[in-house]
Amino acid sequence: VSDPGLLILVAIADEPKHGYAMLNEIESITGARPGPGTLYGAIARLENLGWIEPLESEDRRTPYRLTPAGRKHLASSLRAMERLARVGTRKLATS
Amino acid sequence: MRFLIRFYPRAWRERYGPEFEELLRHEPPSARAILDVLTSALVAHVQVFVSDAASTIQALGRVRPELRALNWFSAAVALGTALSGGYRSHWTLEHDANVVATLAILILALLSHLGGAIGKSARDAMIIIAVPVVALHLNFWVSYNGAANPVVFAFLVAMPATPWPDAEHLRSLRVSEALCYLQALIMVGTGAVRGRPIAAIFLGGIWLALAVHQRRRRLRAAALLPLTPGSLSLGG
User: Fold this and answer.
1) Mutate which of A22, A39, A40, A57 to disrupt the B interface (most B C-beta within 10 Å)?
2) Measured between CB atoms, does A16 come within 8 Å of chain B?
3) Which residues 11-50 of B have a C-beta within 8 angstroms of A?
4) How far does A95 lie from chain B, in Å, by closest CA?
5) What residue in A sits closest to B26 (Cα-Cα)?
6) Which among A35, A44, A59 has CB closest to B33?
7) Coil vs helix vs strand at A56
8) Percent of chain B topping pLDDT 90
9) Which residues contact B212 (CB under 8 A, 6 or more apart)?
10) How many Cβ atoms from other residues are within 10 Å of residue B152's Cβ?
11) Which residue in A has a C-alpha nearest to residue B7's C-alpha?
12) Neighbours of A62 (CB within 10 A)
């Protein structure tokens, strides 16, 4: 999984997080740390799509949380990935 | 690394600048991180450009009905000129295209200049009278003097220095900006085709500078508008 947008949605699925906490969470999930420009490019895109929204800033850090539309999109993406993984694993086993 | 924020578009910096700066303060500087930020800044600029172009196209579709009708008329004239050009002894596409583009710009300039002062119905009447008068004079002038169009420069300069902070003013600025880009393209294209590269670069450059000037005015006017949903988008 390399889509930074999807990784952000996963990172904040349980609770709101600011940029730095998102980077740490994504690094702990995938083992790779996205660049800061990549992260904020994705944040801007997700916000424009209405999938995340900012909360009140704390000490110049702005936490973001999922919107209902973002939650729906994440659930649908994860279901699609699950189906893909299932089919791929089955095909590998039979080859 | 915080100085890298300067490479982002202004609208982006205004929205995300403080929190992004805070993030950069905690990130260890590395060549990879610097490259990542510079690449993302470039992408943000491209997004602004694309969003801006889309808004301009939308603005072109929303101009006042009489102006829209004139645009159709101008388009028909341009098409007719292009189709008939091959059969004429002196094909002056350069002049004809200038007349069409110039007329549109003049009308937009008049719209901007008169709209705030005299009201919409009077302005519409002025446009109806002004169009044929300006067309006749300009056609005469262009026929004898080439393609520099200082008359248009004067009209553009005469546009009000204090912008009205309303959506219609922004639309007219957008449209005149788009037409300046178009005129720059026409200048460069016709100059190149006619083997006059210096004139192409010089005249095209003037129109490009005017387009950039219009863009700056539009952004300044947009900054005076009250925030509305979507105004924080990268389209700035």
Assistant:
1) A40
2) no
3) 12, 15-16, 18-24, 26-27, 32-33, 35-41, 43-44
4) 40
5) A20
6) A35
7) coil
8) 6
9) none
10) 23
11) A37
12) 20
Type of residue found at A42: A
Looking up tokens 């490479």 gives B7
Instruction: State the count of interchain CB pairs (< 8 A) between A and B.
Output: 61
- B125-139: per-residue pLDDT in tens? 555 555 554 554 444
Name residue, tokens 């209405």.
A50
The count of other CB atoms within 10 Å of the CB of residue B30 is 11
Task: Record the pTM.
Answer: 0.51
Q: Please, are residues A49 and A77 in contact by the beta-carbon 8 Å criterion?
A: no
Q: pLDDT value at position B236? A: 35
What angle do helix axes A4-11 and A19-30 make, rounded to 10 degrees? 100
Closest approach of A82 to chain B, Cα-based (Å): 30
Task: Provide the strand spans (E) within A1-95.
Answer: 52-54, 64-66
From the candidates A17, A20, A22, which should be mutated to test the interface with B, based on the most B CB atoms within 10 A? A20
Do residue B234 and residue A39 have CB atoms under 8 angstroms apart?
no
CB contact (8 A) between residue A60 and residue B15? no
**pLDDT for position B233:** 40
Cα–Cα distance, A13 to A52 (Å, whole number): 10
Sign of the alpha-carbon dihedral angle for B33, B39, B41, B43: negative
Q: Extract the residue ranges of chain A whose pLDDT is less than 70.
A: 1-2
Q: For A3, which DSSP code?
A: -
DSSP letter at A73 equals H
Instruction: Write the burial class of residue B69 (CB in 10 Å: 0-12 exposed, 13-18 middle, 19+ buried).
Output: exposed
Q: Give the chain A residue nearest B11 (alpha carbons).
A: A44
Chain A residues inside the 8 Å CB shell of B36: 34-38
CA distance B17 to A50: 20
Question: Helix, strand, or coil here: A33?
Answer: coil
